[in-house]
Amino acid sequence: MPELLNEQEEQHIDEELVTRLLEEEQPELFREEFLAGHPYDQAKYYEKAGPGLRRRMYEYLSPAELAEIFEVSEIPDEEFGGFLEEMDTRYAADMLAQMYADNAVDVLNEIDKSKALTYLTLMEDEDAREIKDLLHYEEYTAGSIMTTEYVTIPKNSTVRSAMAILRNAAPEAETIYYIFVADDENRLAGVVSLRDIIIADENSIIGDIMNERVVSVLVSADQEEVARTMKDYDFLAIPVVDFQQHLLGIITVDDIMDVLEEEASDDYSKLAGVSDMDTPDRSPLNAAKKRLPWLILLTFLGMVTANLMGHFEKTLDQVALLAVFIPLIAGMAGNSGTQSLAVAVRGIATGDIEEESKMKLLFREAGTGLITGSVCGVFVFLLVFLWKHEAVLGLLVGAAILGSIFVATVAGSFIPLLMHRIKIDPAVASGPFITTLNDIISILIYLGLATLFISQL
Amino acid sequence: MPELLNEQEEQHIDEELVTRLLEEEQPELFREEFLAGHPYDQAKYYEKAGPGLRRRMYEYLSPAELAEIFEVSEIPDEEFGGFLEEMDTRYAADMLAQMYADNAVDVLNEIDKSKALTYLTLMEDEDAREIKDLLHYEEYTAGSIMTTEYVTIPKNSTVRSAMAILRNAAPEAETIYYIFVADDENRLAGVVSLRDIIIADENSIIGDIMNERVVSVLVSADQEEVARTMKDYDFLAIPVVDFQQHLLGIITVDDIMDVLEEEASDDYSKLAGVSDMDTPDRSPLNAAKKRLPWLILLTFLGMVTANLMGHFEKTLDQVALLAVFIPLIAGMAGNSGTQSLAVAVRGIATGDIEEESKMKLLFREAGTGLITGSVCGVFVFLLVFLWKHEAVLGLLVGAAILGSIFVATVAGSFIPLLMHRIKIDPAVASGPFITTLNDIISILIYLGLATLFISQL
Question: Which parts of the chain span the membrane according to its record (chains A, B) (predicted)?
Fold first, then answer.
C-alpha cells in the first residue's frame, strides 16, 4: 500500500536484510532488526519465508516471541497444522501456551484432534485448562472468541490499589483499558475505564466511581450480535457472562473487527453464490470445488425451467419472436429480486429490521415492486412498440415485466424474512437461488400470458 | 436482541418511565433516569421520541449532554438537518461545538451550507477553527474521519509529567490509550501506550520507552485503506500525518468499525445493484427511486440482448426447442460470472490481491472456468440426452454452457481487475452489469453454435 503508509524505511522490517541475517546465521543481528518491527509485519515475513528460513526462526525466537506473531497473523486456518508441524513439538506447545487463550483455541480448532491433544498434554496445567475451557464453546459464539486473560478489581478497592493491580496485570492481560468489577461471587457488578481511574482521586473507592450499568453478552450469544453491540456502543471490550451474571471472559475490539469483516464477507459471498470466499492463491481445482455445488444445483433448477418452458413449445413455435424477450424478462425479475433480497438480508444483519417492522418492510417492498414494475413495464412497451411497431407484443412484454418485477421484489424480501423467522441464516437464500426462482416465475408469467393471447399476436 | 443482552432492567433506559417524566415536566427525575443510560440507548430514545418530547429534552439537557448523544447515534445523514432545526440556533451551535470535531464535521457536511455557516459563526473561534480545518478534507479520506482532539507528549517528558498531562487531557481527548510523541516541529516521533506508561518507572523519559516505529497514514489516504491497516495491526488509534510527517490528527477504532461496515455494505449493495442501501423505513417511492437507475439501465441492456437475438429469429423459428435452454445457459453464465466477480472484488477490498498476483488470479480463474464449465457442460449434455434423447442438441447445449461459463468466469475477474488498475472502484462493475454482459455473450455463443449446426438438429 505505497500511497497509504509513509515511505519511512524504519517503520517496516527490511525483509532482504532479515533474510540475509538468517542465511548468514546471525541470531543477534536478526533479532535486533526483526523484533523491532510490528508483529503484523513480522507475521507477514514469517508466512512468506518458506520452511527453511522458518526453521531457523524457531531457533532464534522464543516461543513467546513467536506467539505474538501468531496472535496477529492472518494465516489461513487450514495452514496452521503445517506451520506447527515444522516446529519441535514442545516448542509448539510452549508457543500455544504463550498465546492468548482465545487465539490458541482458534489454532487448535483447525488442526488434527490428536495433535491438539499432544500439545495440551505438554503444556502447564493452568495454561491447558484455560484453553480447554474455551474449546467447549461452540464456534461463532461469544464464548469462542472471548479471552479469559482480563483484569477484575474487587468493588471495595481504592483507586491506588486498583492501579497496583493493573500494573501487575498489564503484561499479561489482553486489555487494561476497561476493567470489570466483580462481587464476592464473581458476578459482574460494574465497569470502570482506565481513563476514569486516572482522573479519579487516589483514595476513591472503585465501587463509587464505577458504572453499574454494564452492557454484557451471554456466552452463547452469536458473534455477529456481539459485534453489533460493540459497534453500536463504541466499546473497546465487552464482558461475557453466564445466565447468573458470572463473569466468564471478555471480548476485545480487535477480535470484533475480524468478526465484522468475516460476517460481511460471508453475506457477500452468499449473495454471489460462492459457498466460501476463496483466497486468491487457491488452485483452480480447489476454487472450482468451492463453486461447483452452487452451479450444479443451479443447473438442476435451470433444467426445471427448461422443462417448464417445454410445455410452451407450441406457443414458441408459433411466434419465434417471443423467445427474444425471455432473457430481458428473466433478467429484470432476477435483478429486482436480488435488490430487494440485499436490502432485507443486510437489514437483518445490521439489526435495522426488527420484529415489528417486518410486515412494514413487506408492504413497502410490494409498493416498491409495483412502482419499479410499472415504470419498467411502460418503458419496455414503448421500446418494443417503437422498435418492432408491435403494440400487442409490446403490451404483452410490458405486462410480463410488471408482473415479474412485482412478484420478484416481494419474494426477494419475503424469503429472507421467512428464513430469519424460522432461524435459518437469511443469507443462505442467496443471490443465485433467488435469481433462478425468479427466472422460473417470470417465464411462467410471460409464456402463460403469451399462450392466452396467442391469437392476437 | 433479547437473547443477546441480559435482561437486567437497570442496564437500559426505561423508555416508558422517561417518556412519562418528560410529559409530567420533571426535569430532575428525567435527568436521573435518562443520563444513567449509555449514550447509545439515549440516542435510540432520542430518535424515537418525536419532536414534542425532543423539544422538552433540549430544555432539560445541556448542549454537552446532547452532544454525547449525537456522537454515538446512527441518525441517517439526511435527517441531521431536521433535528437541528428543532433546536434553538444557539443551542445547536453550542452542541456542535461540544462534539468531537470529526463528528461535528459529519453533521455539518450533511446540512444546508448556509445553516452550517450560521452555526460556525455562533461558535467560539477555536471550536469553529477546528471544525473548519476538518471540513477541508475530502469525504472518505483519513482527513475526513480523523479527530484533532488527541494528546501529544514532548519526547523529553518524564513518565510522571506525562501522567499529569494525560489526567488533564482525559476529559477532552477522544482516546488517551495511545499517546503520540511529537518533536519540536510537531513531527511524529513515536508512540507510547497508556499500558507502557503505567508499567514504566515514574522517572523514565518518554523518549526512551516510546516505540519509534509508528505506523501512520497520510491525510489523503482512502478510509478503506486506513481501516485495513488498523484491523491488520490491531491498533486502537492511528496517527494521521502530512507528507512532512507533521501530526495532523488521529483516527480511533470506533470510527473505523463504522468504516468497515460502511464499506462492506457498499460492496454488498453494489453486487446487488442497489445504488445505495436503503433503510427499511424509507417509503416505496423513495426505495423505487434508488433502484430504478439500475433497472432502467438493465432494461436497455436487455433490449440490446433482445435485438441481438432478433438476428437469430430464423434459427429459433426452425427449432423452437432451442429457446427452452436460453434461460439455463444465460443463468449459468451469469452465476459463474458473479462468483468470480465476488472473489475479485472482495480480494481487492481486503487487500488479498496485490499487484503481483493479478495475473495469477486471471490464470487461476481461467482454469477454474474451464473446470466448472466442463463439469456443468457434461452434466447438462447427459441431462438433455436422457430427457430428450437428443444427442446433438445435448452436445450443442453442453458446449454452449462450457464456453459461456469459461468466458463469464474470466470476464468476472478481468473486469474488476481492469477497473482497479484504471483507478475506478471495482465494486461498480456490480453484479447486474456483469450478469447482463454475460447473458449477451452466452446467448451469442449458444445461438451462434446453433445456427452453424442447424442442419444437424
Answer: 292-312, 318-345, 366-387, 393-419, 431-454
